[in-house]
Amino acid sequence: MSRSLSQCVIKLHEEHHALEDYQGGVPRWCNGCGDNAILAAMQRLCSEEDLAPENTVFVSGIGCSSRLPGFVRSYGFHGVHGRALPVALGVKLGNPRLTVVVAGGDGDGLSIGAGHFPHVVRRNIDITYLMLDNRIYGLTKGQTSPTTPRGIWTKTAPHGVIEYPMNPAGLALSYGASFVARGYSNQTKQLQQLVMDGIRHRGFSLVQVLSPCVTFGRACGFDALAEQLKEVPETHDRKDSRAAYLLATDPETMYTGILYEDDRPELVEVLQQQGGTRGRELDDSGPAIDVERLIGRFS
Ligand code: SF4
Ligand code: MG
Fold first, then answer.
1. Which of 225, 228, 172, 229 shows the shortest CA–CA distance to 203?
2. How far is ligand 1, taken at its centre, from the CA of residue 33, in Å?
3. How many domains, the chain?
4. Is residue 199 part of a domain?
5. What percentage of the chain carries pLDDT values higher than 90?
6. What is the pLDDT of residues 199-231, one digit of tens each?
7. Measured between alpha carbons, how far is 120 from 129 in angstroms, rounded to an integer?
8. Which protein residue's CA is at the shortest distance from atom 1 of ligand 1?
9. Residue 221 is part of which domain span?
10. pTM of the model
11. Is residue 1 part of a domain?
12. Which ligand is closest in space to the CA of residue 142?
């Protein structure tokens, strides 16, 4: 082997990131919690796709699932309750070269954070939002969340939940999201592919991930999933938003897979076309977006 080729092989070896490179800290979730499997899938994804840790950011709010950034060795931002999406928006605008993944729960994203969801969706910023849906507030020990099924007993509904549950995938579709998918923590191979497809998609992507809370969410209907789960039919037209909405909100079947995907202008591209950049090519010398100029626009 010539010297230059061996140097090249050594360089390639050095640049590939192994699974251990993304394993940061021992997860503190309960044994059997769906979030453990989701974390492992995300670390495998990072390694297999060789997402450089220094160019990857996991952002979260507050809740059991929002602890995820603390267990991935990459950049991370564990924010305040319900504010993961605006933080992620700021991170991506500050440096559009980064891969930005948001991890948060149904309570964080659809209760206190619900006001941010439609507005980040309609800006079509190129981030991926994993909504880890366990249908309960786990961290605070079992209160009704926006996706808790109707009729079950929780600590805040001693006579049974009276509200109708929200549907994360259906909501994202109604807000006009350009990529919407649904996965399940027990189907990690499919989940890994869905998240990768979401990351590759240019624009906002939501992946609702059903993730059972084995400690406080036993009554939340996950036992019935085995009979309800079905993959999105191959005949489904992913560009048909009405068909996607019908699949997302089907009362009998919980469809997993990509429900909707559309190619449309992404926020940073649009801002660059409008002159919102510093007027130069993306390089390593600083933010590609004039952040100060945008503060008024997005605050
Ligand atoms: Fe997971 Fe529930 Fe335990 Fe939280 S309380 S770590 S959601 S099983
Ligand atoms: Mg929850």
1. 172
2. 6
3. 1
4. yes
5. 84
6. 999 999 999 999 999 999 999 999 999 999 999
7. 10
8. 33
9. 28-298
10. 0.90
11. no
12. 1
